[in-house]
């Protein structure tokens, strides 16, 4: 664990943690936002940096420099809550808006903008913890959460989340890493992607769901067979209104126990692939539509579509849609929120799902 000279908003420097595994994966993390800073994967006789990141650490916690949620841990509730309100029983809760009338990624003071405490660490794992008081960003109840990053055999990265509450509260933690398996040299529109999902969630231009799920069959949202992301890019109004993909997919039931890959990403040069497994019911695919101007690791700034996010979570605005066919997003006293996402990197060509 290393401390550096840059100061976080709390006036103290961040702590940096490096994890590595002999199988060929190296991570760098930071306690501010439980942020994933770097991911280097062995490929051939060298390494490839597959994660977007900033050259200067201070850019991670300076909203005027970038507000793209690069690599952060998001909470209490990932994605959007429409009109920044929801009800439980006969009580209506109003949470702090982030963009306009809606809340995004837990609010302007969400977990991505806080220092997480170090719970434990080894050369191959680190556990971060955080406490959130009753009323924090408008959410009910006191919450205690952890996230564990672990590097393992077969170039796997395991992200495990836990949380408990003392009042019923919607809880959805995720990581907001941006990937480019080519090492940032090209647009991710040249990557190939599969998503094991038969339905997606259409949205209004403000990215609040319009209502029900729709079948992906016959649309540009069908990634059940691997295809180049750019093949059907901006061909439908649902994409055009947000300048690309920024939509949630309801994963097929066979994905839920991680017995089946939920998504598979392959670099444009076909030298590196990433398989994603998760216990979460949904996956948000964001094609990096508004990355232009974000400070880049290699200097200068990123361009739009230079990285993509695959956010494992509940469907957006789920607290207001109990009718949706997924697990309940409400965590209750006496229960423990436990979810995992696993990424596995491979150097061979990807087989079909």
The SS-based structural class is mainly beta
The mean pLDDT is 95
Cα-to-Cα separation, first versus last residue: 39 Å
C-alpha Rg, in Å?
19 Å
Main sheet, how many strands, which sense, barrel?
Answer: 9 strands, antiparallel
Number of helices: 1
The 3D shape can be described as globular
pLDDT below 50 for ≥5 consecutive residues: which ranges? none
Order of helices and strands: EEEEEEEEEEEEEEEEEEEEHEEEEEEE
Helix content: under 10%
The side-by-side strand order for the widest beta sheet comes to: 11-12-13-14-27-23-22-17-20
By DSSP, the count of extended strands is 27
- Strand coverage percent: 35-45%
Polypeptide structure, described:
The structure is a single chain. The chain has 353 residues and is an all-beta fold. Helix content is 1%, strand content 37%. The chain is built from one helix and 27 strands. The protein has a nine-stranded antiparallel beta sheet, with no helix packed on it. Strand 2 (15-21) and strand 3 form a beta hairpin. The longest helix is centred in the last third of the chain and has 4 residues, at 237-240. The termini are far apart.
């Amino acid at each position: 664990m290393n401390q550096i000279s840059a100061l976080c908003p709390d006036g103290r420097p961040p702590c940096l943690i490096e994890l590595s595994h002999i199988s060929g994966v190296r991570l760098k993390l930071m306690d501010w936002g439980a942020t994933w800073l770097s991911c280097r994967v062995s490929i051939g006789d060298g390494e490839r940096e597959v994660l977007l990141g900033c050259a200067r650490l201070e850019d991670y916690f300076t909203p005027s420099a970038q507000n793209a949620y690069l690599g952060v841990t998001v909470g209490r509730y990932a994605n959007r809550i429409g009109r920044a309100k929801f009800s439980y029983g006969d009580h209506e809760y109003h949470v702090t808006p982030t963009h306009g009338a809606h809340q995004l990624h837990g609010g302007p003071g969400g977990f991505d903008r806080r220092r997480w405490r170090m719970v434990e660490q080894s050369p191959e794992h680190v556990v971060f913890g955080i406490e959130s008081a009753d009323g924090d960003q408008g959410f009910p109840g006191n919450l205690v959460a952890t996230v564990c990053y672990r590097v393992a055999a077969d170039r796997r990265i395991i992200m495990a989340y836990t949380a408990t509450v003392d009042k019923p509260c919607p809880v959805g933690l995720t990581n907001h890493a941006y990937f480019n398996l080519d090492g940032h040299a090209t647009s991710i529109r040249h990557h190939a992607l599969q998503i094991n999902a038969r339905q997606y969630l259409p949205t209004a231009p403000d990215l609040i769901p319009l209502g029900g799920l729709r079948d992906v069959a016959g649309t540009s949202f069908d990634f059940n067979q691997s295809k180049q992301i750019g093949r059907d890019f901006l061909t439908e109004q649902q994409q055009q209104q947000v300048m690309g993909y920024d939509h949630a997919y309801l994963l097929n039931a066979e994905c839920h126990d991680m017995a089946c890959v939920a998504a598979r990403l392959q670099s444009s040069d076909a030298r590196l692939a990433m398989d994603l497994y998760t216990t979460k019911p949904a996956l948000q695919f964001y094609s990096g539509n508004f990355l232009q101007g974000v400070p880049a690791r290699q200097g200068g700034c990123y361009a739009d579509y230079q990285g993509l996010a695959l956010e494992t979570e509940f469907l957006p605005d789920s607290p207001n849609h109990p009718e949706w066919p997924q697990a309940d997003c409400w965590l209750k006293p006496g229960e423990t929120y436990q979810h995992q996402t696993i990424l596995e990197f491979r150097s061979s060509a990807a087989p079909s799902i």
